[in-house]
Write a structure and sequence with these properties.
Blueprint: E1 2-5, E2 17-21, E3 24-28, H1 39-44, E4 56-58, H2 64-67, H3 70-75, E5 81-84, H4 86-116, H5 129-136, E6 139-142, E7 149-152, E8 155-161, E9 169-177, E10 180-186, E11 209-213, H6 224-241, E12 245-248, H7 254-267, E13 277-279, H8 282-292, H9 300-307, E14 318-320, H10 324-330, E15 338-341, H11 351-358, E16 365-368, H12 377-382, E17 387-390, E18 393-396, E19 400-403, H13 413-423, E20 428-432, H14 436-445, E21 450-452, E22 459-461
Parallel strand pairs: 3-4, 4-5, 5-6, 10-11, 11-20, 12-15, 12-16, 13-14, 13-15, 16-19, 20-21
Antiparallel strand pairs: 1-2, 1-22, 2-3, 7-8, 8-9, 9-10, 17-18
This protein binds zinc ion (ZN).
Zinc ion (ZN) binds next to loops.
Length: 462
């Protein structure tokens, strides 16, 4: 078997791993590289393999850094099926369409500038909405947790609940090779137990080779209850100062989780009952609708709420803004509102407009509740930048900045170790989806015969 790594190798984004056995090629995830603008080149670079030669894609979950290059894979010749859980198929369709729309918009903006500079030829977008729709049409067999899917004769994949976002999975690939039974487990992104909405991660079956994420391999998260209290405090303090509270939000999971906590905080009297909350993200609004169609993924308390006719995401002062003029109207609110908008790492989306209107106000607060990759605007602000550039303008950072990391959809160091320990009996672990310091710290804790930290496009014959 040959295993090669074409993304999230020595970094956190762009997950894309290829397994080759007996003339068949199975790709696990095909995510977008995210971070500073130069990454556009990383995304449009050759994959490191011929897309037309891939037989099948197994998709662990719908985050952009796991599914965001699938339309490019199809555009460049992939004609097989994509296998994922039902919720992942629905969410990934939304995520890919949104990404395609953003690529088209950005491309149009660049094209206008290029034409004004006298360019004769224009670059096409990374992929179009049509490519994304074509890709959505490639979703084939639906994987149910725990039931093996026969990909081809003697080759099967089993999806296990990874407890990371709705529909997320770890995937076990099994096949026979030269009379030997081989097993490779891809962790996908691993969630942590004790989250409010989702069931905790399951323990997948043991495997001889494990390809494992290591995002938070070097640190613990703050306890969940502390993080919720910190969120309420940050909101109360900004309201008392007369400022807005901006929460850069990942549209999947985090937005719904935040709504869940805001509703709880208001019900428990920890937040004022009439606080206006704007969910300024068409994608988060659509994702919330998909969430409500999959109560089977929620933990029993949330299912109970649904059964009692209560919507766990319904905040009294909630305003959903899909249309752009509604979003622009929020810019006129100088204080007293909670504004949730994407993207979570502030690399694009409506949050950048809200940051432009609020970052310079000392009474405002920006609350980061998710991972911010190196090179992103979110990371610059978290790291204490005094000034940042937004829409070509130099903006001073005077708002209060909070980082509430206990909301992470990823397991922390202890959670990753516990997950690895529960599987047991491994021959080799390949660490991916981590920045080098996190990976190295985590590697030092592993008690297995072989640990690898592959470089981009590195191949292993095993
Ligand atoms: Zn993820």
């Amino acid at each position: 078997m040959k295993l090669s790594f074409h993304g999230a190798a020595g970094g956190v984004t762009g997950s894309c791993h290829l397994v080759e056995t007996g003339g068949r090629r199975i790709l696990v995830d095909c995510g977008l590289f995210q971070g500073s603008r130069e990454l556009h080149e990383d995304n449009s670079a050759p994959f490191g393999f011929d897309p037309a030669s891939v037989d099948c894609v197994l998709l662990t979950h719908a985050h952009l850094d796991h599914c965001g290059r699938l339309p490019l894979l199809v555009k460049r010749g992939f004609r097989g099926q994509i296998i994922a859980t039902k919720a992942t198929c629905e969410l990934a369709r939304l995520v890919m369409l949104d990404a395609a729309h953003l690529h088209e918009e950005e491309n149009r903006r660049h094209a206008q500038g290029a034409l004004r500079r006298g360019a004769q030829e224009l670059e096409p977008p990374l992929y179009s909405v049509v490519d994304a729709l074509d890709t959505a049409g490639r979703f084939g067999a639906v994987a149910d947790y725990g039931s093996p899917v026969e990909i081809a004769a003697g080759l099967r994949a089993t999806f296990f609940n990874a407890g990371h976002i709705l529909g997320s999975a770890s995937v076990l690939l099994e096949f026979d090779e030269s009379g030997r039974h081989r097993t490779v487990l891809f962790s996908g992104d691993i969630g942590s137990p004790g989250r409010p909405l989702l069931r905790p991660p399951e323990t997948p079956a043991a495997a001889e080779i494990v390809v494992m994420e290591s995002t938070y391999g070097d640190r613990p998260h703050r306890p969940f209850a502390e993080s919720v209290a910190e969120l309420y405090d940050a909101i109360d303090a900004a309201l008392a100062r007369g400022g807005n509270i901006l929460i850069p939000t990942f549209a999947l999971e985090r937005a719904q989780e935040l709504l869940f906590f805001l509703r709880q905080g208001i019900e428990a009297g920890k937040l004022p009952p009439a606080v206006p909350v704007y969910l300024d993200s068409p994608m988060a609004i659509s994702a919330s609708e998909i969430f409500e169609r999959h109560p089977e993924s929620f933990n029993p308390d949330v299912v109970d709420l649904f059964n009692r006719g209560k919507d766990p995401f319904k905040v009294p002062g909630l305003r959903l803004t899909r249309e752009r003029p509604e979003s622009m109207a929020i810019n006129r609110i100088s204080g007293g509102a909670v504004i949730m908008a994407g993207s979570g790492m502030c690399t694009g989306g409506r949050i950048r407009h809200h940051l432009r209107h609020n970052l310079w106000r000392p009474e405002a607060s920006v609350v980061f509740v998710g991972y911010a990759a190196a090179g992103t605007l979110a990371r610059q602000i978290i790291d204490g930048a005094k000034r940042v550039e937004l829409f070509g303008e130099d903006i001073s950072v005077r708002a209060h900045v909070h980082t509430v990391n206990g909301f992470s959809a990823h397991a922390d160091q202890a959670g990753l170790l516990a997950w690895q320990d529960r599987i047991g009996g491994k021959q080799a672990i390949f660490l991916v989806h981590g920045e080098p310091p996190a990976m190295k710290s985590f590697a030092a804790l592993l008690k297995v015969p072989r640990v690898e930290m592959p470089r981009l496009h590195e191949e292993f014959e095993i």
